[in-house]
Write a structure and sequence with these properties.
alpha/beta; four-stranded mixed β-sheet; three-stranded antiparallel β-sheet
Length: about 425
Amino acid sequence: MNRTKFKWSMRTMMVLLVLLSAGCDKLGSMGDQPAPGTGEGNTASLSGTIVMMTNRVDLIENGTMQGYADQFKKKFPEADVEFEGLTNYATDILVRLSTQDAGDILLLPVNLPADELGNFFEPLSESMSAGERFTTFATYGGKRYGLSTGTTTSGIVYNKKAFRQAGITDIPQTLDEFYAVCAKLKAAGIIPLYMNYGAAWPLREWGDGMVNYMTGNPGYTNNMMNVDNPWQIDNEWGKALGIARELINRGYVEEQLFSNNWEISKTKLATGEAGMYLQGNWTIRQVLDAGAAPEDIGFFPFPYDNGSMHYAALNPDWFIGVSKFSKNKELSMAWVEFLIKETSYTSDWGFLPADGSQETSMPQYKEFLSYQPKLVEATVQKDDFVDIANRAKMSFWSGEYIQELLAAPDLQQSFDELNAIWKEARASRQASSQP
């Protein structure tokens, strides 16, 4: 397998790891400082300018984030919030963290080991994180370092008008029925499913995203750290990627596979030129913004086999926290709490509430639940797994390796190559952990 696609993400990751190994003592000395409070008694004095790093470049460009900042300023007149967007956030933020130039507030990197959170982020108060659904995430040593910006599930986002045009009257409940729906859409001149192969990151749905819930076991990928050969044709990896490869082979996806057409694809789904996505519920808001009427967009669980019941993931979206290096931690804490709890940020962009006690009014999600999937609440990826993945130079969080697996002439051969890399990484970790 060609491993060059992993170079950039792993180079940025190694910069961070070098910093960790060289500077942990210095950084760790900062970790015992108590988190600043944001009680009613001192909020009036909060002032200054803080910077938030985000992956939502679109929300910066269209003024949405500034709108939230304007609301914040009404509460804290002497405070200003500025924003910096990173289009390749998952890798670029590691470089920014390594130079201590990551703003005051930022989204927590998904591939940062939990035991290093305290070196880069300020712990949050218990009151700020009360009610959070995902208790194993963004947490270490009894301290929480981030709030979830929302909750997502994955399934088929579809255009009802496209279904009607193709003569589809029933939502597919099995994989065979799903293929039949794709055939009808194709016969009607509609792209059955827009895979977004060229964008890479959406392909995670066909990899670690799907294998982590197909069995109902949210710890499936964590368990990979215990075996040398996790990629097999007859296990969840082979099944998930096999479906994606079958869709490509049958011509049920977009023709321009290698072009990054994420923005274009939203318009195609909104207009009915494409029939379906396999994506999270957060996509729905973006498809509506691309011109679709709310009543024309639906959502159902992906029928990944021919069984009568299917699992669906319940995942946190990005976590947001305060940088350990912020010069204005108190104001930054106030902004995090305000953005997540006092604005419409979560609901505006199609997320489900992060607070497990709250319900959503999203009609598409209610449709999704009507098919009675069994929801599998995600668990955090263990540091051992993250370490082995780093040693293997595999970025499970980018989707690029899925591109290679979908294009591979021989999937078993590609699996064998991945297994060899994984086995070597496991052995390296075991050797380094021995006294």
